């Protein structure tokens, strides 16, 4: 045996901190405790403007009721952020709660460098589901992509554990469905890994679609290698390919990938993956149970001009990044449904490695291992994440076994060599490492390689088996469409499927759920009753029928249905929780408490109900909960703690955790209100720092009964601002329905219309919108929404113009999207005069980036080229991911000038302009994709060169333009194909002349 130890302890870079809490752990521990502290960090930030005032309707993934964050000011400021710092002797992490809980910085103190990509700036671009998104660090995405809270504050709390660990738990009650997500990042003393504990919970009696992905950015240069142990993968064009090759590219080497590209692993063969920078000799390891965390993805912008443009506009100083991602589902086209009161939880581990000579071939939670042939046999490099004493290594090859003893430390790399007699292949070796009774490494224990492609009918992945519509798989297809948030489309397709298969209970249950979510209770009940008529043991239908009866005001009927669900049924636990809540509503505290004991301490919500039940059971009033601090890192637990204690300390803890945010506290208060606990709900609502219409409406409903209650709620409805009021909870909607007949202002109709339309009931939503308009409401978001629906959904441009024009007349430039839709409408009609009339409003638009391309087009068409090029060369454009339109706008303007100069016979001037066609101003944030068709540029450049007498150069341009048709990597369009054929005509013409 030969063994050498390489010391890797180094100096760390300096970070500047203002600490508000210098708390540390126990002083009597053998190993120094990890610490968690709250401080501030200053980061250069390009600020966002105000959120868009319109609701987000008919967008993919349906992020309603969140606002659209599509307004960038372009102003760069030094911004101070509240931050949480977790630290032990090896690792320092910096988390920023106000940026969605982003893990902004992760420093390996042993070598003094970041092991994630730490962006030097916060520079949002239009990449997220709501718009703004920024690159860097580790982002946690739930329930859709990118996380709706990626640019918003999330609730958080720090914790010191009795084992010396330190952690921060953050998350939120997300607003789309009321689901609760939490991520805990934890450091342990003496360990180099960060544990990421994820907990997802649905407290609602309705299922909700979701996915969860952790998006981790690592620094990229051309020496980065990807270490992904899977045989097959599915790429962006929906086809399975053999890893690691795609179109002659070895995807383990991202430098070989020219364009934006992503891939997902199919059936991971190991519990790890990661990335390694060979030149800088450091990398990152991810480890998790592959049964719970099936998903492994990477994404790269590529290495072409488009990639350079995106990296420039997201970062500063020419820095680049690549994303490695993990999640419980196989790809990001898979969205599933979290059932009522279902919880999903798992752990993942991340840690840095360095000095391993090119990467690692194996990783467990305790050890990362690289190995290669040596002169005498096999050389192993082992990097430990903790002190491991008296380990036994068992090396096996060619039927021979050798055992050795070794100690491992996070401060040292161990390089160990084993001699081998005879020939062998590296894939034939085995190495097992034991530390006491822990089996901490098992290299070569199995071979899961297969030549067979996965069967898309039996293995899961929506990209492959859902995108191609098969008439025999209608139900499967429509469920996938529903999971993507395309609710209105799902409504229609379920009805079609039911016409073809009238006894399909799966379809009836799914359609009933959509009716329930859109408050069409009669139709929902009809669906569930039909299911039970065909299948009387269907607990799903019985449970949802109970929920339907409860929501439409028949709680006793609901209670009987929940009682009727047997203990072996799929929805038994959910029915137990709903039964507890109804017992509290009826004042049956003792029965509620006894039922809570059946739930056990499984999750925070169960403990929340148990605490309320004990508080409301008069015979248990002396009982005080001894609740764990872990449960108290939760909105419901902290609210209940406050209501139990009524102390200033408990109140301040709850307000600090939630930030006094209306959407969070309203969600908790509604839970109490649903159980008939009006005083508790009122107490919580008074803790909101800036109460809006929804909070004040609910509060008013709690303070009186009868006519006085209706009068109070009407006063709130008519006096409070409608700005950014996007209702989503059906309990709030029922309050508005109470006011509908008495409200002559149209406000109740407007809010109900928005809710119903977003829930997929477009017909009912539009009817409420029109009723609101007929009652005289001229609110800008109402007028814009009506215009949008008539233009994009109903295809009635004249009616759309009426509403949009009225919005522009009444509200001026307050609503930039109204101006955009008006211009689209006039452009489609070819009405340049009306487009020109919009220019003064566009020039004053609040969100100027939305109208820049339209202004350029109008100025070019009206002969005001100087104004158009002033905008192109001096202003900042905004490309949305996947829609890089600024480059096309620039090229069209250039070609307009080229044609004009050619018509005037000035080919020298035309040459000046055509040479600028691929020199894009920096403010466009654009570089052509390697697959961008440019046959139009080639065609006109050929004409210009021919006009200047440069026939040979002209022929070369025409050839290139024509040959675009046969270049596989170029995504041709109808326009580009027509220009390719024009290039061919020029070639044939010149050949016939020649």
Automatic annotation (TrEMBL):
Ranges for domain DUF5107: 64-353
Pfam family, one: DUF5107
Keywords of the record: TPR repeat
Stored Gene3D superfamilies: Tetratricopeptide repeat domain
Domain of life: Bacteria
Record flagged with keyword Transmembrane helix: no
Placement of TPR repeats on the sequence: 505-538
Protein name: DUF5107 domain-containing protein
Organism, scientific name: Cohnella pontilimi
């Amino acid at each position: 045996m030969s063994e050498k130890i390489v010391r890797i302890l180094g100096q760390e870079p300096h970070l500047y901190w203002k600490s508000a809490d210098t708390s540390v752990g126990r002083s009597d521990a053998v190993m120094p405790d990890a610490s968690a502290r709250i401080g501030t960090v200053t980061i250069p930030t390009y600020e966002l403007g105000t959120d868009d005032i319109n609701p987000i309707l008919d967008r993919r993934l349906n992020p309603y009721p969140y606002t659209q964050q599509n307004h960038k000011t372009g102003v760069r400021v030094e911004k101070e952020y509240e931050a949480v710092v977790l630290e032990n002797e090896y690792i320092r992490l910096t988390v920023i709660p106000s940026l969605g809980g982003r893990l902004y910085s992760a420093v390996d103190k042993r070598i003094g460098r970041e092991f994630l990509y730490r962006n030097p700036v916060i520079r949002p671009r239009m990449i997220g589901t709501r718009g703004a998104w920024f690159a860097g660090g580790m982002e946690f995405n739930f329930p859709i992509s990118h996380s709706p809270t990626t640019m918003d504050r999330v609730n958080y709390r720090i914790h010191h554990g009795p084992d010396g660990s330190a952690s921060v738990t953050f998350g939120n009650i997300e607003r789309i469905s009321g689901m609760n997500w939490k991520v805990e990042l934890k450091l342990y003393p003496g360990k180099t890994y960060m544990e990421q504990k994820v907990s997802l919970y649905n407290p609602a009696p309705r299922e909700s679609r979701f996915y969860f992905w952790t998006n981790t950015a690592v620094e990229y240069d051309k020496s980065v290698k990807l270490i992904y142990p899977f045989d097959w993968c599915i790429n962006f064009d929906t086809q399975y390919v053999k890893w690691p090759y795609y179109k002659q590219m070895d995807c383990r080497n991202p430098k070989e990938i020219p364009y934006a590209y992503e891939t997902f692993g199919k059936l991971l063969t190991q519990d790890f993956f990661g990335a390694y920078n060979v030149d800088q000799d450091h990398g990152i390891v991810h480890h998790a149970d592959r049964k719970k965390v099936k998903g492994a993805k990477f994404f790269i912008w590529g290495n072409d001009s488009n990639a350079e443009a995106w990296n420039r506009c997201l970062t500063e100083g020419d820095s680049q990044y690549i994303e490695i991602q993990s999640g419980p589902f196989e790809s990001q086209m898979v969205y599933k449904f979290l059932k009522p009161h279902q919880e999903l939880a798992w752990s993942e581990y991340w840690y840095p490695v360095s000095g391993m000579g090119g990467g690692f071939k194996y990783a467990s939670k305790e050890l990362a291992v690289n190995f290669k042939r040596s002169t005498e046999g096999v050389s192993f490099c082992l990097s430990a994440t903790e002190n491991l004493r008296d380990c036994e290594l068992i090396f096996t090859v060619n039927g021979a076994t050798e055992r050795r003893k070794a100690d491992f430390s996070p401060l040292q790399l161990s390089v160990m060599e084993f001699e081998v007699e005879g020939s062998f292949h590296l894939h034939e070796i085995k190495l097992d490492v034991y530390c006491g009774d822990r089996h901490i490494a098992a290299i070569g224990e199995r071979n899961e390689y297969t030549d067979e492609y996965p069967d898309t009918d039996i293995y899961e992945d929506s990209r492959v088996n859902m995108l191609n519509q098969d008439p025999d798989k209608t139900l499967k297809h429509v469920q996938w469409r529903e999971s993507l948030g395309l609710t209105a489309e799902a409504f229609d397709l379920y009805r079609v499927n039911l016409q073809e298969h009238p006894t399909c209970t799966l379809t009836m249950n799914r359609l009933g759920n959509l009716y329930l979510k859109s408050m069409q209770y009669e139709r929902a009940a009809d669906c569930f009753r039909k299911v039970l008529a065909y299948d009387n043991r269907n607990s799903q239908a019985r449970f949802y029928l109970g929920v339907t009866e409860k929501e439409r005001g028949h709680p006793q009927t609901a209670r009987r249905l929940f009682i009727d669900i047997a203990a072996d049924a799929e929805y038994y636990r959910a029915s137990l929780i709903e039964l507890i809540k109804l017992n509290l509503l009826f004042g049956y505290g003792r029965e509620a408490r006894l039922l809570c004991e059946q739930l056990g301490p499984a999750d925070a919500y169960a403990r929340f109900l148990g605490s309320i039940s004990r508080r409301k059971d008069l015979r248990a009033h002396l009982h005080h909960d001894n609740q764990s601090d872990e449960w108290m890192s939760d909105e419901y637990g902290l609210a209940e703690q406050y209501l139990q204690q009524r102390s200033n300390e408990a109140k301040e803890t709850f307000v600090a955790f939630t930030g006094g945010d209306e959407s969070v506290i309203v969600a908790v208060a509604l839970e109490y209100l649903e159980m008939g606990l009006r005083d508790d709900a009122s107490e919580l609502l008074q803790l909101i720092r800036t109460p809006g219409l929804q909070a004040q409406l609910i509060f008013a409903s709690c303070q009186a009964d009868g006519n006085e209650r209706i009068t109070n709620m009407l006063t709130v409805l008519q006096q409070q601002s409608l700005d950014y009021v996007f209702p989503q909870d059906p309990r709030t909607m029922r309050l508005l329905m109470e006011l509908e007949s008495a409200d002559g202002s149209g406000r109740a109709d407007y809010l109900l219309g928005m809710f119903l339309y977003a829930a997929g009931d477009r017909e009912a939503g539009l009817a409420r919108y029109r009723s609101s308009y007929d009652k005289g409401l001229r609110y800008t978001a109402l007028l814009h929404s009506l215009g949008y629906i008539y233009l994009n959904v109903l295809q009635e441009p004249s009616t759309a113009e009426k509403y949009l024009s009225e919005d522009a007349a009444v509200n001026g430039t307050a609503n930039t999207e109204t101006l955009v839709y008006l211009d689209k409408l006039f452009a489609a009609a070819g009405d340049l005069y009306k487009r020109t009339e919009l220019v003064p409003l566009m020039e004053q638009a609040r969100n100027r980036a939305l109208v820049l391309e339209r202004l350029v087009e109008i100025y070019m068409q009206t002969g005001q080229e100087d104004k158009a090029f002033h905008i192109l060369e001096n202003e900042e454009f905004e490309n949305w991911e996947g829609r890089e339109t600024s480059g096309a706008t620039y090229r069209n303007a250039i070609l307009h000038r080229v044609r004009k100069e050619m018509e005037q016979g000035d080919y020298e001037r035309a040459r000046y302009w055509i040479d600028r066609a691929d020199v894009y101003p920096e403010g466009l944030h654009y570089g052509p994709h390697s697959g961008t068709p440019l046959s139009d540029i080639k065609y006109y450049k050929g004409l210009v060169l021919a006009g200047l007498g440069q026939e040979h150069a002209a022929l070369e341009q025409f050839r290139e333009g024509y040959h675009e048709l046969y270049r596989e990597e170029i995504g041709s369009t109808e326009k580009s194909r027509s220009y390719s054929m024009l290039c061919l005509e020029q070639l044939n013409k010149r050949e016939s002349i020649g």
